[in-house]
Design a protein that fits this description.
Elements lengths: L12 H5 L13 E10 L2 E11 L4 E5 L6 H8 L7 E6 L2 E2 L2 H5 L1 H10 E4 L12 H11 L4 H14 L15 H13 L5 E5 L7 H16 L3 E5 L3 H7 L2 E5 L5 E4 L20
Parallel strand pairs: 3-8, 3-9, 6-7, 7-8
Antiparallel strand pairs: 1-2, 1-4, 4-5, 9-10
Helix pairs in contact: 5-6, 5-7, 6-7
Length: about 270
């Protein structure tokens, strides 16, 4: 259920119960990898990865470039399929057979909101307003609900004044905020964010951080990749470190893996 800009988002009943089916049923992880293997062009990029993300968690994937963080996120969103092992979303195995069911695939993609590191990869409408409205419109929402979601999402990321602008004429930071608004307007159960603060100035970083904290407080789930130690610390995220051999090493919220692969600056350009 969408509850407005001031309150960000709240979990709806279907999203909370998911595959468990009823309150009181045994809880299953929202995301689970079981010895997942994925190779690209003959090169292993995810090597026997096992991990879990529970509902309401804020989890950060950390590691050097090329370790497989982005590939893991593409697997979670169904953009890639595991060569071996199993990926379960809310207790369902996500594989080619599952995604061939158009109704199941639509529900899955509505529940998993993916924001690419490069916002250009997901912006395609003529105006910002149309971009943010596209997802909710595809969900067949009533006109008043669609309008409210678009208004609130654009307000959350402070892009309402850009409603009539072309996404292609925006700065990198503005594009990232529009991409976030477009995904959040669909009210997914989990946000999967690839380097969410890259390209944002300090004020925009604050907007994103405050939103993510409120989003998780509302019962939602966030999985993000980042190189930024200070961002993980600010969010109090559970860290999962991926080493250069594509293996997973768990870390506590106060431990962020080898410091040599982490940058301390959250922001790299003006938005």
């Amino acid at each position: 259920m969408w509850i407005g800009k001031g309150d960000v988002l709240a979990n709806d009943t279907n999203g909370v119960m998911g595959a468990s089916g009823a309150t009181g049923a045994k809880s299953v992880p929202l995301i689970e990898f079981r010895d997942v293997l994925f190779s690209y062009a003959g090169h292993t990029v995810v090597d026997g990865v096992s991990l879990q993300v529970d509902r309401g968690e804020l989890v950060a994937l950390l590691g050097p470039n090329g370790c497989g963080k982005t590939t893991i996120m593409r697997l979670i969103n169904g953009l890639e399929l595991a060569d071996a092992g199993a990926y379960l979303f809310d207790g369902h195995v996500i594989d080619a057979a599952y995604l061939k069911d158009s109704a199941a695939a639509q529900r899955f993609h509505q529940r998993v909101g993916f924001v690419f590191q490069n916002a250009d990869a997901q912006l395609f409408c003529a105006t910002v307003g149309e971009e943010v409205a596209f997802g909710p419109a595809q969900m067949g929402l009533p006109a008043d609900e669609l309008e409210r979601r678009v208004r609130d999402a654009m307000g959350l990321f402070q892009v309402a004044d850009l409603a009539d602008a072309s996404p292609y004429q925006l700065s990198g930071g503005q594009k990232k905020r529009v991409a976030l608004a477009a995904v959040v307007s669909m009210n997914p159960d989990i946000l999967v964010l690839d380097e969410p603060t890259n390209g944002l100035d300090e004020d925009s970083c604050d907007i994103v951080v405050n939103f993510l904290l409120a989003y998780v407080a509302a019962g939602k789930t966030v999985l993000m990749s980042t190189h930024h130690q200070d961002l993980v610390r600010r969010l109090g995220a559970r860290a999962i470190y991926i080493d250069r051999y594509h293996h997973v090493v768990e870390a506590s919220s106060s431990s962020y893996g080898p410091k040599a692969v982490l940058r301390t600056s959250c922001c790299v350009e003006r938005a």
